[in-house]
Amino acid sequence: MRYFIRLSFLGTRYSGWQIQQNAPSVQAQVTRALSLLLRESISVVGAGRTDSGVHALNYVAHFDAKSDITKNATEWCYKLNAILPSDISVSAVTPVPEGAHARFDALSRTYLYCIHGYKNPFIEPFSTFCPLALDIDEMNSAASLLLGTHDFSSFSKLHGGSKTNICTVHQAFWSKQESCVHNMATEGHLVFTISANRFLRNMVRAIVGTLIEAGRGKIPPKEICRILEKKERNAAGASVPAQGLYLYKIAYPYTVY
Predict the structure, then answer these.
(1) Confidence label for 121 from pLDDT (cuts 50, 70 and 90)
(2) Catalytic residue, candidates 51, 105, 135, 151
(3) CATH 3.30.70.580 region(s) of the chain?
(4) CATH code for the domain defined by 2-96
(5) pTM of the entire structure?
(6) Is 68 among the residues known to form the active site?
């Protein structure tokens, strides 16, 4: 049987989702825990890569197993969480059709990026400190120019390995919030939300770094159009740190949870 599994993880001490040689990964931990619990060799396929240090609130993966775990799914999740480290948590497991695929069936992915304007040591691992005055209206004007289908080479890590750098962005906007995603209150908190059919390596962090430049008045919002047209990584701003980035939601053409 094939199952979809929903999990969240704190990415601080991981090299990302995907298994890598000589580096800890979330995929390796989940694969180990599933194989141990089900007493069979399990292969886990994730919805996509995440960069080193990036967090996930609702990540989705699939795996095949001989065991029927649908009757005691709640107990099964409890046992799996007991095996997993404290920074990875499984919230649901659902049987799906044999051909369902966590990566290729995804219609869109939504990321959040959190920044705070006043130094707060308690949210430092979960948000990026940006003490500069930012004009959120200018940042949203610039973000609106990302909507639609474009070549995002200027916002992609060099030699990222993608066959195409064409992506379709459905929404991109900044909002003021009283707390970060962990409900920890801090002053001057801003959250960037972006949804697209696909993302390139380092794309969101490069976009955020460029939009912050617009918020500081270093570039006009319309400069985003020129940056997209250049298709060169050095045309955009510097990438922001990983700790403020969260994979927030993945949409599928069928109901999973």
Answers:
(1) confident
(2) 51
(3) 2-96
(4) 3.30.70.580
(5) 0.92
(6) no
